[in-house]
Specification:
The chain is an alpha+beta fold. It has helices spanning 38-41, 49-63, 72-92, 99-114, 116-126, 134-140, 152-163, 167-170, 207-225, 237-251, 254-270, 304-309, 314-332, 365-380, 383-393, 402-408, 423-439, 446-460, 462-465, 471-494, 505-511, 523-540, 548-557, and strands at residues 171-174, 180-181, 185-192, 197-203, 276-277, 281-286, 290-294, 299-300, 334-336, 344-346, 352-354, 360-362. The chain has 4 domains: 1-67 and 254-288, no CATH class; 68-147 and 207-251, no CATH class; 152-203, no CATH class; 365-561, no CATH class. Helix content is 52%, strand content 9%. The strands form 3 sheets. Strands 1, 2, 3, 4, 6 and 7 form a 6-stranded antiparallel β-sheet that branches. It has a 4-stranded mixed β-sheet with strand order 5-11-10-8. A two-stranded antiparallel sheet has the order 9-12. It is globular.
């Protein structure tokens, strides 16, 4: 967990005392005091949150172990639910222009029928725009809104069992209709007897044992799917199951989520970042299946028009969200692992309220420094630094020859403008890259996948938040912020100084396919080029050659090929 008493980059603002500990709202329903939160230290014979996190990691490893024998009944159910649509797709649509759309359309109802675990997997895929195929992402977006809530008597029983008291002893009101209903839990608005308006996250009653059964079944089935599903690439089915197990097992204990909230809020406070806030978890009302927290309000993330009408600078909102995310990842090794529009609200003062901390990435020191080198290498167009960082992150084998990787992938040759290539030439480029990456044993590890997914989400958010803002100007603004606030540390850890003068703007222009005389590049300009490239590929691309995850890793090294 993050040390809450570390020095801050700037003094905390005036207001509640806990603003010195974390980036919370100035309207404190209670004061956060980590030492006075019994759920953090365990009650009775229960372990503390650090021990709970280790136990969750151990359980995930056990469940995906090849020798772990799953429930035969569940394996047969999953095999039937997934196998039948695969057979129909293979007979009717495989190899046709509608192949990916058809497969996605058939898999989504299969995931719905299989229940919470598969719905959660589908929801993770749906927030992976740019990583997973567009057809799969768009189809699985439907899973976010099609999870029926549990009956209120079941919710009441769960809350009362975990809190050890009747509902009326804790709340004066508890809305029976949930604000949101997801695969793992649902959220209800309520009012405490002490008067505070709160939201209560309640875990579905039978989800934990079902998740364990499903992960074991997934791990057993996944090896048989290798090479048989065209939406799998670096994150092949076994690797995807492993990643999924690591994230969802932690999500089953809300005490870990509450600690994630405190840790990320502490990171924002340490960097002086006050443009993003975290809801306060309740000092006492947190258990394995129940999480009571501060109720925050704001504009939905995609309501950019409403924000602008309220006088909010949406481009500044996006820039501050990017900086806050990068600071947490690059300097403290902790970041929200599932950024998407449903997990972010923009409050009336322009601050972003970050929600749902069930998926939170934590990096050891080696990986944190690798992420920092990766970003700084990309900013300065230092290819060797980027490839070394990818190796240290686990995207390439530890014994990879960096010079050979650079040579075999032609990483140091001048960028190629994809719009000058025919569709066949673009496909030849993609096949060349794919073959070389697979030959090196490339993969997309959990932390890198979450990081890339978040970066792609924030990049895509420009379409509604800042479509006419100069991208090159934004790059310089972000780099200037980092050099002013963290320049000494960056130079010490990456081994070279990064300033506005060292940023390779010509490289960025070339990577995006623009010439050196392009003084300003907006998201609209970039989107027009992307659509042109996508149309060319769509017209000629064989569905079995589509490897979006390979592109995601390669995009980090050479964004002109993304």
């Amino acid at each position: 967990m993050i040390d809450p008493v570390a020095p801050h980059a700037t003094p905390p603002p005036a207001g509640p005392a806990d603003l010195a500990l974390g980036a919370f709202t100035p309207r404190a329903p209670w004061i956060v005091d980590p030492d006075a939160m019994p759920w953090r230290f365990g009650v009775a014979d229960e372990p503390d949150v650090d021990a709970l996190r280790r136990q969750a990691a151990d359980l995930a490893r056990v469940l995906v172990h090849p020798q772990h024998l799953p429930s035969l009944g569940r394996v047969l159910t999953v095999a039937w639910r997934l196998g039948f649509p695969l057979l129909v797709w293979g007979a009717k649509e495989r190899g046709t222009p509608q192949s990916r759309a058809g497969l996605s359309r058939r898999l989504r109802p299969a995931f719905e029928h299989l229940g919470p675990t598969y719905i959660k997997l589908g929801q993770i895929i749906s927030s992976g725009e740019g990583i997973f195929p567009e057809e799969l992402v768009q189809e699985f977006l439907l899973l976010r809104d099609r999870v029926p809530p549990e009956p209120f008597p079941v919710v009441r029983r769960t809350v009362e069992e975990d809190l050890g008291r009747p509902l009326a002893e804790v709340f004066t009101s508890f809305d029976s209709t949930p604000i949101a209903s997801a695969s793992i839990a649902q959220v209800h608005a309520a009012t405490l007897r002490t008067g505070e308006r709160v939201v209560v996250k309640v875990q579905r009653s039978r989800v934990a044992p079902l998740v364990r059964l499903d992960i074991a079944a997934m791990a057993w089935i996944a090896p048989f799917l290798v090479g048989r599903i065209p939406v799998a690439a670096l994150t092949n089915p076994p690797a995807l199951v492993e990643l999924f197990a690591e994230t969802i097992v932690e999500e089953l204990d809300f005490r870990l989520e509450a600690q994630n909230m405190l840790d990320i809020a502490a990171v924002f406070a340490r960097t002086g970042q006050r443009t993003v806030v975290v809801p306060r978890p309740h000092p006492e009302l947190v258990t394995r299946r129940v999480l009571v927290m501060e109720h925050l309000h704001g504009f939905p993330w995609r309501d950019a028009e409403g924000m602008r009408e309220a006088g909010i600078d949406t481009a500044a909102v996006l820039r501050s969200s990017l900086i806050a995310f990068l600071e947490g990842a690059l300097f403290y090794g902790v970041f929200h692992g599932d950024l998407h529009g449903g997990n972010m609200l923009v409050q009336s003062d322009g601050t972003v309220a970050l929600l749902d901390f069930g998926i939170t990435a934590r990096l050891d020191e080696k990986k944190r420094q690798a992420f920092l080198r990766l970003q700084m290498g990309a900013s300065t167009n230092n290819v060797a630094v980027q490839v070394e960082a990818l190796r240290d992150l686990g995207a390439l084998p530890a014994d990879s020859d960096i010079d050979a990787v650079i040579r075999d992938l032609n990483l140091e040759r001048p960028p190629i403008d994809p719009t000058t290539l025919t569709a066949e030439e673009m496909m030849a480029e993609l096949r060349e890259v794919t073959k070389a990456l697979l030959a090196y044993g490339a993969r997309l590890p959990k932390e890198l996948m979450l990081f890339v997914k978040n970066m792609l989400f924030l990049n895509g958010a420009m379409a509604v938040m800042a479509p006419d803002v100069d991208i090159l100007g934004e790059i310089l603004a972000v780099v200037t912020y980092f050099t002013e606030h963290h320049g000494e540390r960056i130079a010490r850890e990456v081994g070279f100084e990064v300033t506005a003068d060292t940023i390779d703007l010509d490289g960025y222009r070339a990577a995006m396919g623009f010439t050196e005389d392009a003084d300003a590049i907006t998201f609209r300009d970039l989107q027009e080029r992307r659509e042109l490239i996508a149309k060319r590929l769509e017209a000629h691309e064989h569905p079995r050659r589509r490897v979006p995850l390979l592109r995601a890793v390669y995009r980090i090294i050479r964004p002109d090929r993304g």
